[in-house]
Amino acid sequence: MERRFVIEAVMIATYGQLLLPKRPVEYRIPYSTIMELYDMKDSPEPIMPEPEDDRHVKAKVAEMIQFFEDPFNKKKLERALLAPWRESPPLPINEHVTFIVVNAVENMQYGEVFDPIETELILTSLRLQCPILTDQIEFQDKAVQNSIPVLLYDIDDYEFALEEDVPTTDGYSQ
C-alpha cells in the first residue's frame, strides 16, 4: 500500500533519500511551496550552511522547477489551480514516488501562530488525513504546543514513518 505525506517542495529537493523510498510513496505538495522554489533559486541567501551543499541543493531546486515547468506536468498543475483544494493528477517521478500538487488555501485559521506555508501544510494534512514530513523543528514544536491535531514526522525519522501504518480517521490504515 502506498504511503502518503504532506511535504514542502524544497524538502524533496533538499533530501534526496525522499526520492528513493523502500515502498511506494505519494507526496502531497501545496502549490505555494512550489512557488517558493523560484524565490530560493534566485535568492543570494543560502539554503544550506555549507557552500558545496548549498550549490547542490540549489541545482536540485532548479531541477524540480524544470520538472514542474515541463509542458506535460505544467498542464496537470494548471488543472489543480482551477479551484481551491483541487489536486493535480498524479505526477510520477519513479516507480516508487508520485507527486500530487494541492491547491491549498490558507484561511488564517492558524495565522496567529503559524506562517502561511505552515498553515497550508496543517490544513492539507487535516483535509487529506495524512501526516506532515518536515525538518522544521520550530514548526513541530509549535504544532505540539498548540495541540494541532496533525501527525508530524521529522525528516530524520523518515524510514520509521515509511514503515509505520497510521490509522486514518475513517479507521483504515494508509
List the helices and strands and how they pair.
Elements: E1 3-6, H1 9-14, E2 25-30, H2 31-42, H3 51-69, H4 71-80, E3 91-92, E4 97-102, H5 116-128, E5 132-134, H6 137-145, E6 152-154, H7 158-163
Parallel strand pairs: 1-2, 2-4, 5-6
Antiparallel strand pairs: 3-4
Helix pairs in contact: 2-3
Structure description:
The protein is α/β, with parallel strands linked by helices. It is 43% helix and 14% strand. The chain contains seven helices and six strands; from the N terminus they run βαβαααββαβαβα. The protein starts with a strand and ends in an 11-residue tail after the last helix.
Keywords:
single chain, 174 residues, alpha/beta, 4-stranded mixed sheet, two-stranded parallel sheet, disordered C terminus
Rg, Cα atoms, Å: 16 Å
Main sheet characteristics: 4 strands, mixed
Contiguous helical run count: 7
**Averaged pLDDT:** 89
Q: Name the helix and strand elements from N-terminus to C-terminus, one letter apiece.
A: EHEHHHEEHEHEH
Task: Measure the end-to-end span.
Answer: 7 Å
Low-pLDDT parts are 167-174
Please provide the count of β strands.
6
Kindly name the structural category.
alpha/beta
Share in helix? 40-55%
Shape designation: globular
Kindly report the spatial arrangement of strands forming the biggest sheet. Answer: 1-2-4-3
Strand content: 5-15%
